[in-house]
UniProtKB/TrEMBL annotation:
The lineage of its organism: Bacteria, Bacillati, Bacillota, Bacilli, Bacillales. The keyword Transferase applies. This is PLP-dependent aminotransferase family protein. Pfam families: Aminotran_1_2 (PF00155). InterPro entries: Aminotransferase_I/II_large, Class-I_PLP-dep_aminotransf, PyrdxlP-dep_Trfase, PyrdxlP-dep_Trfase_major, PyrdxlP-dep_Trfase_small. Keywords: Aminotransferase, Pyridoxal phosphate, Transferase. Its cofactor is pyridoxal 5'-phosphate. Transmembrane segments: none annotated. Residues 31-384 form the Aminotransferase class I/classII large domain. SUPFAM superfamilies: PLP-dependent transferases. The keyword NAD does not apply. GO terms for molecular function: transaminase activity.
Length: 395
C-alpha cells in the first residue's frame, strides 16, 4: 500500500483551493492578449538593465554572484527609503524589507499575522494572487464592495459595526489596492483613505496597502495610506515590477519595526544578491522620475485608445470604469456569464480574464478584466472590436 505523505496540518487549507495560477489562460496562436497584465515590451528598459549588469560585474567582479553578495545590496533599501520619503513616508532602516516582488511580501505578512481563525477583510473584486495567498492561511473573509471611487468605506464601516454588535470576530488585516486597483483600475478618494485609517484605529486591524500601480498615475499622484498613518497601522507593499521589469522580482514591505523584523526571520532566500545589486546599479544610472513620467504618459495614451474602442464597439448595455492609472479596465456585460463566453472570445481571437477570478466568493459572473498595457494600439482596437461582436451575440 502506498504510504500517505505526512503533510503538515497547517497547510490543509491550501488544498481546499484551486491550484495557483488556475486563472492563467491557454491562448490560441495569434490571439490578441487583452488578458495579459504585462508591461509593454518596448517600455521594458532592456538596454539599461544590460548596461547595469555589465557595469556591476566590471566593478565588482564575482562579489554579486556570492551568497554574501554585493556591497550595493544595502543601497537598494536606502534608495527605496528615499523614494518613499518623496511620497510622504519617512522610514528607518528597520522598517523596510526588500522582497522578491510584492507577492513574497504579501505571503510573509500573511505568514506572520494570520492563522486559521483570522479574518481578512479585502476588496471585492481584488488581485487574484493575493486571494490565493490568503486562502493558504485562513478561510474567513469580509468582502468589501468597490465602486468608481475605490473601496466603499461607508459599507465597510457598516459591516464592521454589525460584526462587533453580533459578537463576531473582527478582521486582523484589511488588504487594499487603493491606487489604480487591480482589476478595476479605480483609485480610492482621499476622504475614503482618511476614513479607512480611522476605521483601523477604531476596530484595531492592520491595513496592508498594495501599491503595485501607485506610481503609474494619469494625473496627480494620490496620497499613500502609509503617508496618512499616524498610529503605525499600515504595512505598505511596494514593487518595481510595473515600473522597471517584473522578472527582476524586486518589491518591499514597509511597516512597524516588530512586524518587519519578524517577516525577515522567515525570509530564507538570502535576499537575491545578484538581482538586488543589478537593480541598485540600474537605479544609480537612471533619472527615475523621468522614467516613471514616460511610463505614465505611455499607459495613459494606451488607456485612451482602449476607452475610445470600448465606446465605439461595445453594445450600449455594457459599462466600465475609466481608470486613473495602472494597466486595467473593468467591464460589466449585464446578464452574461463571462466565463461561459470566454471560449467564444478565444475562438474569435481575443482574450480577457473573467471576473469571477477576482472575487473570494463570486456571486455574479458579469464582469471581465481587460488590459491595455501589453498589446499594441492596433491590437487593442481590433481586440475590442472582436470582443464587441462576441458580447453582442450574448446579450
Amino acid at each position: 500500500m502506498k504510504e500517505e505523505i505526512p503533510f503538515s496540518k497547517d497547510i490543509a487549507l491550501a488544498f481546499k483551493n484551486e491550484p495557483p495560477g488556475s486563472w492563467l489562460l491557454d491562448l490560441p496562436e495569434g490571439c490578441i492578449r487583452l488578458s495579459s497584465g504585462y508591461p509593454e515590451p518596448s517600455l521594458v528598459p532592456v538596454e539599461e538593465v544590460k548596461s547595469a549588469v555589465v557595469r556591476l560585474l566590471d566593478e565588482e567582479g564575482d562579489l554579486p554572484l556570492h551568497y554574501k553578495g554585493s556591497p550595493r545590496m544595502p543601497k537598494l533599501a536606502a534608495m527605496i527609503q528615499e523614494r518613499m520619503a518623496k511620497r510622504g513616508v519617512d522610514l528607518t532602516e528597520q522598517e523596510i524589507l526588500v522582497t522578491s516582488g510584492a507577492c513574497q511580501a504579501i505571503d510573509l505578512v500573511s505568514r506572520v499575522l494570520l492563522d486559521s481563525k483570522a479574518v481578512v477583510a479585502l476588496e471585492a473584486p481584488t488581485y487574484m494572487e493575493a486571494l490565493e495567498v490568503f486562502g493558504n492561511y485562513t478561510e474567513h473573509f469580509m468582502n468589501v464592495p468597490v465602486d468608481e471611487n475605490g473601496m466603499d468605506t461607508t459599507r465597510f464601516a457598516e459591516m464592521l459595526a454589525n460584526r462587533k454588535r453580533e459578537g463576531l470576530t473582527l478582521p486582523r488585516i484589511l488588504y487594499t489596492i487603493p491606487s489604480s486597483q487591480n482589476p478595476t483600475g479605480t483609485t480610492m478618494t482621499l476622504e475614503r483613505r482618511a476614513r479607512l485609517i480611522e476605521l483601523a484605529e477604531e476596530y484595531g486591524f492592520l491595513i496592508l496597502e498594495d501599491d503595485a500601480y501607485g506610481e503609474l498615475n494619469f494625473g496627480d499622484a494620490p496620497r499613500l495610506l502609509k503617508a496618512l498613518d499616524r498610529g503605525n497601522r499600515v504595512i505598505h507593499i511596494g514593487s518595481l515590477s510595473k515600473v522597471v521589469a517584473p522578472g527582476m522580482r524586486i518589491g518591499w514591505a514597509a511597516g512597524p519595526e516588530e512586524i518587519i523584523t519578524t517577516m525577515n526571520w522567515f525570509k530564507k532566500d538570502l535576499h537575491h544578491p545578484f538581482g538586488q545589486a543589478t537593480m541598485t546599479t540600474f537605479l544609480e544610472d537612471i533619472d527615475f522620475d523621468a522614467h516613471v513620467e514616460k511610463l505614465s504618459a505611455a499607459y495613459k495614451r494606451k488607456c485612451e485608445v482602449m476607452i475610445a474602442a470600448l465606446e465605439k464597439f461595445l453594445p450600449p448595455a455594457v459599462t466600465w470604469y475609466t481608470p486613473e492609472g495602472g494597466y486595467f479596465v473593468w467591464v460589466r456585460i449585464p446578464g452574461v456569464d463571462t466565463m461561459e463566453m470566454l471560449p467564444q472570445a478565444l475562438d474569435a481571437g481575443v482574450s480577457y480574464v473573467p471576473g469571477n477570478y477576482f472575487f473570494q466568493s463570486p456571486e455574479n459572473n458579469e464582469f471581465l478584466r481587460l488590459s491595455f498595457s501589453y498589446a499594441t494600439d492596433e491590437e487593442i482596437v481590433k481586440g475590442v472590436e472582436l470582443l464587441g461582436e462576441v458580447a453582442g451575440r450574448n446579450i
